[in-house]
Specification:
- The structure holds 2 protein chains of 2 kinds.
- Chain A contains 13 helices and 16 strands.
- Chain A is globular and about 80 Å long.
- Chain A is of the alpha/beta class.
- In chain A, helix 6 packs antiparallel against helix 8 and helix 10 crosses helix 11.
- Chain B is built from 6 helices and 7 strands; from the N terminus they run H-H-E-E-E-H-E-E-H-H-E-H-E.
- Chain B is about 35% helix and about 25% strand.
- Classes of the chains: A alpha/beta, B alpha/beta.
Chain lengths: ~400, ~180
């Protein structure tokens, strides 16, 4: 993906000012409620306002052409206040350029265009196929007792991205896999090397199957001895990972086509949820597979392990790293398809942004642990605590050294 | 006013001419090799002097290029690079700077150098050792060449902390 995409935002929910230039992989970090999710959902509206409106229409949801209602339905109940359109009357475009005074209203600039949601949401729909597939943090809600849940199973005030993801998973399990009992491992889904690492680090020899229950397919884990384990006895990591796996099935078709439909963007919130660091690395391999297939991926995370991968790939890029180095990082065998994947990973662009508590969004792409900026050196707060612990331990060791050398001479 | 200015200037020159505790401690080392090693300010750091600075009332009194000075005496030892005298508001202290690439694979080398430095100070340069340990703050510094590639929380970073050394930096500023 050569073309640069930039999203600038001012005064949207907790975000005061953000300018994000997207890479092939863009990672957003920051504390809770700093606006990462709002930012990603906004990106989806900008890309998919047509299909989203069509989806509301399909399920008989009337937002009465009022953007406030749309925002309540899309971002979720109580969220319409994050957006204030009043600034437009004051000349939004010029204020973005000059930036001298913070405008009272929300400003959104997608590439070169200033976007007004009131106008965007009433615009004639040209595109009916979605460009972004969104895997929300609440993905575990897509399953109830192992049963998938359709869009209409949720309240109107639940976020659209949660309902839509659940609907996709529902379609996948109840229609695409209607005639198959086995969901994982699946011969025609994911490369055998990926199946192997997922089996090793997440499923631990268990298989994911469906069983019929009152005309619906219910997901169960099958132990190697053939015993079925119901949803509530799965490990937390398995409960979190299964919807993510189904999302990846959606994105990686079993055919020769590399992508599904016209989807170009993938958003995954908190990829690491419930997973052991080794399992996170395994899932990051699947993210590289998405990049290899030409998807542009946006992740939000609280995991330094994900930034470790980005940091390592960038250093490999700047130091003539080889595909073998990438494969060794993930403990992957050197097979033809995996070498291609690794080679491709070394060509991709990576960007990292820190959503700070004060509403500013900072570019920390360099991830240089020695950077003068604490935002970058501390990886947006993700390694700050480890750094602090290290500094304190070094201090304690030095104090003991002084104490030993000087005895009671100067010590307290 | 001019008289006061002249007096102040004369006092400053007198203070600067005065032998610093660091210089005195360097002179006390009974090694011929170190006899001419002392240089005023941070001059001994040569090209790296620009990467080390101090702020406020702190100033560098003098410096030594330990690595070069002790090359013939300890040809095969993992010699530490530089020592600096630092005048703080309360006292003069010695701090030590190692210029080294900063990848995780270099941690062991730098820790070996730190062990050597501590051993040398204690056995051969007791006055410098006392100037070092009288400082209860940071005293050993790793100045990274070509970027820092060790991040907090890694086993290598923990090894450094355990030895009283913090993560490498691309600039060192004494505040």
């Amino acid at each position: 993906m050569g073309d640069t995409k930039t999203l600038r935002v001012q005064n949207l929910g907790p975000i005061q000012e953000a300018e994000v230039v997207f890479g092939d992989l863009t990672v957003l970090v920051g504390p809770q409620a700093s606006g990462k999710s709002i930012f990603m959902q906004l990106l989806k509206v900008l890309l998919d306002y047509g299909p989203i409106r069509e989806e509301f229409k399909r399920f008989g949801i009337d937002w009465q052409k009022r953007w406030e209602n749309f925002l309540e339905l899309y971002f979720g109940e109580g969220m319409s206040e994050i957006y204030r359109e009043s600034a437009e009357e004051q000349g939004a475009e010029s204020e973005i350029r000059e930036g001298a005074e913070r405008p009272a209203g929300t400003l959104i600039q997608w590439n070169q265009s200033v976007i007004r949601l009131s106008e965007l949401l009433t615009r004639r729909i040209r595109e009916q196929e979605e460009q972004m597939f969104y895997i929300p943090a609440q993905r575990v809600l897509a399953l109830r007792d192992g049963l998938t849940r359709p869009f209409t199973d949720y309240r109107a005030g639940d976020p659209f991205v949660v309902r839509e993801f659940a609907e996709k998973i529902h379609q996948l399990v109840q229609s695409e896999f209607a005639t198959k009992e086995e969901l994982f491992p699946q011969e025609r889904r994911l490369k055998s090397e990926y199946r192997e690492i997922l089996n090793q680090h997440i499923f631990a020899g268990f298989g994911l199957r469906t069983e019929m229950e009152r005309f619906q397919r219910r997901l169960v884990l099958k132990s190697p001895t053939g015993r079925s384990l119901s949803f509530l006895v799965w490990s937390a990591g398995q409960r979190e990972f299964v919807p993510l796996l189904l999302g990846l099935y959606w994105l990686i078709p079993p055919t020769k086509k590399s992508r599904r439909g016209r989807v170009e963007w993938v958003a995954i919130e908190e990829l690491e949820m419930g997973l052991h660091p080794v399992a996170i690395s395994a899932v990051m391999v699947l993210v590289l597979e998405l990049l290899h297939r030409g998807y542009r991926v946006v992740l939000s995370t609280h995991s330094p392990h994900i930034l470790d991968v980005v940091w390592a790939l960038q250093i490999m890029q700047s130091h003539q790293g080889r595909p073998a180095n990438v494969l060794r990082m993930f403990s992957l065998p050197s097979t033809g398809p995996l070498r291609e994947l690794a080679e491709d990973a070394l060509k991709k662009t990576y960007r990292v942004y820190y959503f700070r508590r004060d509403g500013k969004v900072v570019d920390i792409t360099g991830l240089n642990p020695g950077a003068p900026s604490e935002d970058e050196a501390g990886w947006g707060g993700l390694t700050e605590f480890s750094g602090k612990v290290g500094d304190i331990i070094a201090e304690v060791v030095r104090q003991a050294e002084s104490q030993e050398a000087l005895g009671g001479e100067n010590g307290k | 006013m001019p008289k006061l200015f002249v007096r102040q200037k004369a006092r400053r020159l007198w203070v600067e001419r005065m032998e610093s505790e660091f210089q005195e401690a360097v002179n006390r080392v009974s090694l011929l090799a170190l006899a001419n090693a002392y240089q005023p300010g941070k001059q001994a750091l040569g090209d790296y002097a620009g990467k080390v600075d101090c702020e406020g009332s702190k100033r560098f009194t003098g410096s030594i290029d330990l690595d070069s000075a002790l090359k013939s005496s300890y040809p095969d030892s993992p010699r530490w690079d530089y020592g600096l005298g630092l005048q703080t508001s309360g006292q003069e202290i010695a701090v030590w700077v190692e210029v080294h690439p900063a990848h995780t694979s270099n941690v062991r080398e730098v820790l070996n150098k730190l062990d050597w430095l501590k051993g040398w100070l204690q056995s051969q340069a007791n006055a410098l050792w006392r100037l070092t340990v009288r400082n209860r703050g940071r005293r050993y510094f790793w100045l990274a060449t070509k970027g820092v590639h060790i991040r907090p929380g890694t086993p290598q970073a923990r090894q450094l902390s355990r030895a009283g050394l913090e993560l490498p930096r691309e600039w060192i500023v004494f505040r």
